[in-house]
User: Which sequence fits this backbone?
């Protein structure tokens, strides 16, 4: 045997197969999808919920009928005319737009109830798309599908999807002394020099654990011709990998190495590890062939080191690690005393800190599970965790992925999802964790060292320049580098066909127009307010100005659902939901980061992606984007 170290053997063996080598895609139903790995990005086919529904037990009302109600001036509503009883989950009848919970209702008789506070539009109502939005990226390519992912897929109208085929693995047990347990009526029948063959069952179980399909051949005698015949049959089949168990050492009956060499190529014969030293790693007709040692412990260790990583790789998976990790929350996480809470969180390493960003805590939001990297458990006797505390998080992903996470916080943009998907599609061991807190929120997160990058499009209304004045104001003492990501079209998103004939911002003061706004601190809100100021329009004159959302897609969903007639957002969001769009501005969206981390390997992976033709083509196809300068350095500030 020509011994190699374990690392040398891995480099030689895994280096023989292309990094993008996969088993090939196949389409499966969601019922069969658990444990499989996506062969491409998966997008939502419909929104969830699909109808406006009550979020509380109580009555549905027209909010305008409740205005002016106070403790001193209560209002009596007639059931059947001004109010209807409803239960959680029931559809909101046409003409009604608010739910008053049962605890706030005083029932006077069978047909009359009294309320003592007013309601507001869409109070206690789950709107269409509150959890999942049509065209939303649900799962990236090479994503291992978990039980709650299956629920999210069905909720989003995805009933079948493309996954990588399960690797088919031929297992050939060899040894003239072996006997199959099914050939024995009882153990007492075992003859001298006979051994019950069970390694193939262990290997088959390990294959299944890796998502593969084991194909166990009959026991092959220690004869060179028989071994060659079995190998020829295996490599000519549709198997992706062949394991030949036993006969891998250097004894007089060990024919495996010579047979593989005769039929193909032996890459490694002998690995400097114990147990598992006699391992053979070879290739026949471009198929990996592993000569697995006969001793059970050796066979298992050899499998874990060489077969398992290859099977996972063929399906776009990485070898998982299980454990916990100490994290610091990026913001305070309050919790109700007396209840142990499990908070889903995005987790990533920023500098020397492992930071955890809590995801929305809504009980009905299944997407927080599909997005979460970990769960922070808050004990029942605690009222929460402050951002200055360190707490243990249970990992839902490999810890190595946490350490190789690029945390991007700031303004919402769908191109961030594409960056993350492209990174995974290309096989990099880097993930993107994003949080939508608005442009200013992203810059403030940089100041707190809670993220690597901030996505921002803040307009300086005096200079007409984007982002620079805000960086100078809020990142004093920090040298920050600014890179172009995209130019994008901002404007008013209206219902398909623009039924209310909205032509511009001037129409927003009409009594029949309701706006959905973006949150304060977002670049879109800054631009919107600037445009209103140019026209001399007071915010108070616009119905709905104080009602805001945190993403462009949420704005588009509000318009689609009829909760609003229009809202400020990007063209891509309007196009995704087949809505109309009135362009207002082509704005600059940048990535801002501390200059000190620009050359970090993970950051460089992001640059490689956003400078690639594939990324630019995908972004252009969204509509309303110009990514021609994506990845270009603009300037350093500070």
Assistant:
């Amino acid at each position: 045997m020509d011994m190699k170290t374990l690392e040398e053997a891995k480099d030689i063996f895994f280096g023989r197969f292309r990094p993008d080598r996969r088993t090939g895609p196949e389409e499966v139903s969601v019922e069969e999808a658990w444990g499989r790995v996506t062969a491409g990005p998966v997008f939502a086919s419909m929104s969830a919920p699909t109808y406006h529904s009550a979020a509380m037990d109580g009555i549905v009302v027209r909010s305008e009928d409740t205005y002016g109600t106070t403790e001193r001036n209560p209002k009596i509503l007639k059931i059947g005319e001004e109010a209807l009883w409803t239960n959680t989950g029931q559809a909101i009848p046409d003409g009604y737009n608010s739910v008053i919970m049962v605890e706030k209702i005083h029932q006077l008789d069978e047909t009359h109830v009294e309320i003592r506070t007013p309601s507001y539009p869409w109070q206690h109502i789950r709107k269409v798309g509150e959890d999942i939005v049509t065209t939303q990226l649900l799962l990236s390519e090479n994503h291992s599908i978990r039980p709650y992912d299956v629920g999210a897929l069905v909720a989003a109208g995805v009933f079948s999807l493309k996954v990588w085929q399960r690797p088919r693995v031929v297992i050939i047990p060899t040894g003239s002394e072996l006997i199959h347990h099914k050939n024995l009526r009882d153990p007492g029948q075992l003859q001298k020099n006979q051994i019950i063959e069970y390694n193939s069952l262990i290997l088959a179980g390990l294959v299944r654990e890796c998502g593969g399909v084991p194909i166990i051949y009959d026991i092959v005698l220690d004869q060179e011709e028989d071994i060659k015949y079995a190998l020829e049959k295996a490599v000519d089949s549709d198997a992706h990998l062949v394991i030949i168990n036993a006969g891998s050492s250097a004894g007089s009956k060990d024919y495996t190495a010579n047979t593989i060499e005769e039929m193909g190529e032996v890459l490694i014969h002998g690995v400097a590890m114990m147990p598992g030293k006699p391992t053979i790693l070879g290739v026949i007709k471009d198929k990996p062939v592993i000569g697995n040692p006969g001793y059970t412990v050796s066979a298992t260790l050899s499998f874990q080191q060489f077969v398992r990583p290859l099977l996972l790789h063929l399906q776009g998976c990485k070898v998982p690690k299980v454990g916990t990790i100490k994290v610091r929350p990026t913001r305070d996480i309050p919790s109700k005393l007396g209840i142990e809470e499990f908070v889903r969180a995005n987790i990533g390493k920023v500098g020397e800190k492992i930071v955890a960003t809590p995801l929305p805590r809504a009980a009905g939001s299944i997407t927080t599970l599909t997005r979460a990297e970990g769960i922070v458990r808050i004990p029942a006797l605690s009222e929460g965790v402050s951002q200055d505390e360190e707490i243990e998080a249970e990992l839902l992903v490999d810890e190595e992925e946490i350490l190789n996470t690029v945390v991007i916080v700031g303004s919402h943009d769908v191109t961030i999802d594409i960056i993350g998907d492209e990174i995974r599609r290309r096989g990099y061991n880097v993930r993107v964790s994003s949080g939508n807190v608005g442009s200013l929120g992203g810059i403030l997160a940089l100041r707190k060292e809670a993220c690597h990058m901030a996505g921002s499009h803040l307009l300086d209304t005096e200079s007409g320049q984007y982002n620079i004045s805000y960086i100078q104001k809020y990142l004093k003492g920090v040298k920050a580098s600014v890179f172009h990501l995209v130019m994008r079209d901002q404007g008013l998103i209206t219902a398909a066909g623009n039924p209310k004939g909205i032509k511009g911002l001037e129409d927003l003061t009409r009594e029949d127009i309701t706006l959905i706004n973006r949150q304060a601190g977002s670049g879109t809100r800054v631009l919107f307010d600037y445009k209103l100021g140019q026209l001399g329009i007071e915010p108070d004159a616009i119905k709905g100005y104080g009602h805001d959302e945190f993403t462009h897609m949420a704005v588009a969903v509000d318009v689609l659902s009829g909760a609003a007639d229009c809202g400020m957002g990007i063209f891509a969001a309007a196009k995704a939901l087949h809505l109309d769009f009135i362009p207002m501005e082509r704005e600059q969206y940048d990535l801002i980061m501390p200059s000190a981390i620009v050359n970090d390997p993970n950051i460089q992976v992001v640059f490689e992606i956003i400078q690639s033709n594939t990324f630019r083509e995908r972004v252009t196809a969204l509509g309303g984007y110009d990514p021609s300068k994506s990845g270009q350095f603009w300037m350093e500030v500070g």
